[in-house]
């Protein structure tokens, strides 16, 4: 009894629905799971079940059992309350039995008295029979005399029916005249005239009926919009009602999501509430196709042609006209793709057309057949798919594409409810889904560009706990060291990182919207979301990052921050995977789908940023080197390093301090690349073909600059180098300058090619080029050198060394 008392009344199904014969099955709810009255703590399920508290589930189940017991007690009280009424009713019924027995006795007595009184009536009846026999004989004589009167009356009735436009009754009257009345008076002339006039009356009826049919066809063509709109609306309401309660239960008892992720079920709950309210408002105004269209003309016409034996002509004409109307309905407007209303009108007209055909199929016999409607639908479906494929390709607004998808789903569900196959429409939706993703990617490309343009590329400062929690709520950042620091403090990433992470989740939500109502499993939807997210990361975001990195106004500090940002975005990819898993309700153990490619995306962007850092750093070094203004003919050095070089070294020190937040290998590589590029630039300055002469004083001055470079390298501007690794970037310059400063040509020539040579890194061609420049300067500065023996000996030594160097260079070229 407790189970029956708790059973709720099933809701009345909508009057509009497909004639499939399927019963409307209302969703069952449990009173124990209903939301209790506000203020009743005893019956309220504790919301701690949603929190990650110990024994939360157990406590929830205990409170739920208590709620159930309370309801059972109330039910038992209700049954006990009505038990006495049931006993009283049985008692009253027993009293009625006694009265019924008395009534039976009275009826028996009344019947006996009635039989006694009827004996006299029987006598009178025999007399009446004799009189009736006499009357029948008189009637027979009258019938013979007035044989023609019924024929005239029926013919008069036929004329009245024709005047009253009761054509079906008139045809039946004609049949009666031909089959019953005319044979009786066929020998009379007036009967022959009537017989000759009947075919003309039948033709008139056919013409009038056909005219009514044309008016009917025109009427349903005009009302197709309203019929389709009503059918689609009621199909949507029925679908919403059938899926709303399971979704609501999933909202209440579904898996809890990651704390930093927005819970989409809250939005769904609001949408379901609106859906229920809308359905309650429209429930009283349920219309059927008969309410919108008067089908009586087609019924009459069909019956008339059936009676006339010309049913095939009527069927052919009807089908031919409806096919023409179908072609008109399937022809879209040229600007249909511009607004969702254009698509809606197109769908409602088609739905209205086929709802009428389905109604005709089920209420008439033979006018249209299932084979005919299937053929018509297949033709229409091919045309619909071609039209949607063509017009949807013009859509560039993802919101419009999403609304189109929703219309197609409602359109397909409506017609599927009437027995029309719609699998090809859902296949088309997968094509449109790809286009939808493309429009989303284009939209989010603009979003990412705006984020990068608005970013200041500096760490996010926070001055209190509230600001810190705001950042944490937007981006899953975890750093125990940062948490221990006192305020104010800074996050390592810039403002663009939490904004990009939020926008990626918004993209996933937008992509999920299209996957709803596609009759796909959660695993398939999960795979769709991962693939579209991969496209967003690998193509859109990656392209935006690369374009940002290559922009001329992005400096070294910005590039360093971009590398830091990509590192944190890469670490957040696992949270995005968990986010997708949560919103699709797929457990981690059963996921065998595509993983996110964020790791490779952000690594590629980071490598590009690193390469851009190396390039811009080298460009900056070139700008400083271009400021060099050596006096290549000076006799004595200045005694201090050049100003441009000291400025360059100070710049490098400040830049490498910014690199402290970069991964160690990136900073070391940048430092080594800068030193190597500086060494190469200085070497090219010495060997410049436009520089013809270099004095030893200039060499000594140049040596002072190289010494500063070596001191900079030995100061370990970036930690992590082992020994004198960084100083080796200047080893070529050092050995070349030492060779000229010491003038140790004998050692160089004697040890050339030996692994242990003191001047192993000095190329003979490089030494020869520099020596020729030094020789020309010696000749110019010593006009009378030929008259001094020491100078003559030095010139001879230079000539000898140059010959030997040329031989070494030639030997290298021949060996090569």
From TrEMBL:
InterPro entries: EXOC6/Sec15, EXOC6/Sec15_C, EXOC6/Sec15_C_dom1, EXOC6_Sec15_N, EXOC6PINT-1/Sec15/Tip20_C_dom2. GO terms for cellular component: exocyst; plasma membrane. One of its GO terms (biological process) is Golgi to plasma membrane transport. The keyword Transport applies. Residues 1-54 are annotated as: Disordered. The keyword Transport applies. Residues 63-232 form the Exocyst complex component EXOC6/Sec15 N-terminal domain. This is Exocyst complex component. It holds the Pfam family EXOC6_Sec15_N. Keywords: Exocytosis, Transport. Component of the exocyst complex involved in the docking of exocytic vesicles with fusion sites on the plasma membrane. Signal peptide: none annotated. Residues 425-773 form the Exocyst complex subunit EXOC6/Sec15 C-terminal domain. Belongs to the SEC15 family. It comes from the Eukaryota.
């Amino acid at each position: 009894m407790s189970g029956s008392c708790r059973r709720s009344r099933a809701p009345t199904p909508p009057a509009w629905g497909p004639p499939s014969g399927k019963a409307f099955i209302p969703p069952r709810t449990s009173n124990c799971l209903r939301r209790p009255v506000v203020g009743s703590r005893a019956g309220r399920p504790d919301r701690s079940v949603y929190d990650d508290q110990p024994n939360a589930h157990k406590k929830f189940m205990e409170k739920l059992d208590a709620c159930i017991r309370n309801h059972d007690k109330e039910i038992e009280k209700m049954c006990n309350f009505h038990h006495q009424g049931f006993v009283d009713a049985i008692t009253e019924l027993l009293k009625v039995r006694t009265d019924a027995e008395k009534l039976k006795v009275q009826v028996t007595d009344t019947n006996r008295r009635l039989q006694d009184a009827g004996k006299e009536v029987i006598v009178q009846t025999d007399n009446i029979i004799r009189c009736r026999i006499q009357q029948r004989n008189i009637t027979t004589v009258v019938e013979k005399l007035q044989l023609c009167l019924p024929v005239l009356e029926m013919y008069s009735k036929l004329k009245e029916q024709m005047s009253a436009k009761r054509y079906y009754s008139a045809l039946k009257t004609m049949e009666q005249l031909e089959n019953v009345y005319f044979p009786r008076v066929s020998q009379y002339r007036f009967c022959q005239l009537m017989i000759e006039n009947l075919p003309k009356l039948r033709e008139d009826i056919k013409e009038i009926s056909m005219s009514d049919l044309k008016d009917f066809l025109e009427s349903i063509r005009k009302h197709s919009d309203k019929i389709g709109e009503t059918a689609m609306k009621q199909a949507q309401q029925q679908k919403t009602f059938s899926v709303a309660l399971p979704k609501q239960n999933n909202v209440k008892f579904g898996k809890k999501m990651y704390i930093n992720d927005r819970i989409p079920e809250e939005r769904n709950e609001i949408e379901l509430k609106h859906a229920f309210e809308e359905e309650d408002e429209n429930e009283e105004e349920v219309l059927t196709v008969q309410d919108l269209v008067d089908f009586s003309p087609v019924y009459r016409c069909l019956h008339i042609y059936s009676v006339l034996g010309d049913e095939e002509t009527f069927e052919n004409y009807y089908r031919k006209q409806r096919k023409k109307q179908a072609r008109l309905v399937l022809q879209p407007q040229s600007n249909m793709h511009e607004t969702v209303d254009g698509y809606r009108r197109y769908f409602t007209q088609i739905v209205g057309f086929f709802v009428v055909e389905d109604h005709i199929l089920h209420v008439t016999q033979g006018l249209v057949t299932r084979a005919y409607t299937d053929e018509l639908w297949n033709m229409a479906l091919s045309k619909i798919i071609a039209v949607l494929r063509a017009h949807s390709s013009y859509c560039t607004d993802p919101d419009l594409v999403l609304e189109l998808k929703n219309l197609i789903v409602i359109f397909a569900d409506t017609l599927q409810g009437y027995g029309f196959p719609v699998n090809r429409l859902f296949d088309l939706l997968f094509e449109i889904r790809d286009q939808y993703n493309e429009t989303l990617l284009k939209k989010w490309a603009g979003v990412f560009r705006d984020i990068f343009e608005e970013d200041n590329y500096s760490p996010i400062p926070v001055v209190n706990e509230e600001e810190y929690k705001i950042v944490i709520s937007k981006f899953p950042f975890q750093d125990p060291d940062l948490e221990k620091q006192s305020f104010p403090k800074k996050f390592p990433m810039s403002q663009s990182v939490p904004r990009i992470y939020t926008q990626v989740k918004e993209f996933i939500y937008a992509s999920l919207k299209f996957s709803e109502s596609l009759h796909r499993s959660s695993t398939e939807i999960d795979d769709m979301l991962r693939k579209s997210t991969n496209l967003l990361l690998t193509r859109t975001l990656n392209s935006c990052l690369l374009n940002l990195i290559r922009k001329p106004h992005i400096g070294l500090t910005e590039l360093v921050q971009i590398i830091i940002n990509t590192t944190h975005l890469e670490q957040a990819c696992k949270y995005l995977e968990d986010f997708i898993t949560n919103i699709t309700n797929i457990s981690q153990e059963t996921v065998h789908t595509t993983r996110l490619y964020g790791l490779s995306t952000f690594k590629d962007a980071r490598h590009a940023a690193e390469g851009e850092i190396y390039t811009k750093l080298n460009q900056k070094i070139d700008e400083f080197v271009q400021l060099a203004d050596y006096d290549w003919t000076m006799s004595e050095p200045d005694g201090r390093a050049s100003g441009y070089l000291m400025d360059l070294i100070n710049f490098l020190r400040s830049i490498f301090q910014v690199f402290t937040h970069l991964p160690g290998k990136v900073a070391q590589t940048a430092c080594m690349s800068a030193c190597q590029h500086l060494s190469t630039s200085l070497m090219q300055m010495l060997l410049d073909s436009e520089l013809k002469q270099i004095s030893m004083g200039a060499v000594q001055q140049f040596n002072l600059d190289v010494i500063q470079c070596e001191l900079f390298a030995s100061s370990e501007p970036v930690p992590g180098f082992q020994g004198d690794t960084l100083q080796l970037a200047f080893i070529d310059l050092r050995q070349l300058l030492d060779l000229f400063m010491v003038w140790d040509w004998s050692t160089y020539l004697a040890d050339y090619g030996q692994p242990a040579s003191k001047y192993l890194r000095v190329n003979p061609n490089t030494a020869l080029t520099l020596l020729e420049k030094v020789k020309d300067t010696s000749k110019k500065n010593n006009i009378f050198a030929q008259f001094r023996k020491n100078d003559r000996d030095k010139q001879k030594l230079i000539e000898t060394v140059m010959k030997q160097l040329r031989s070494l260079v030639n030997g290298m070229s021949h060996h090569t």
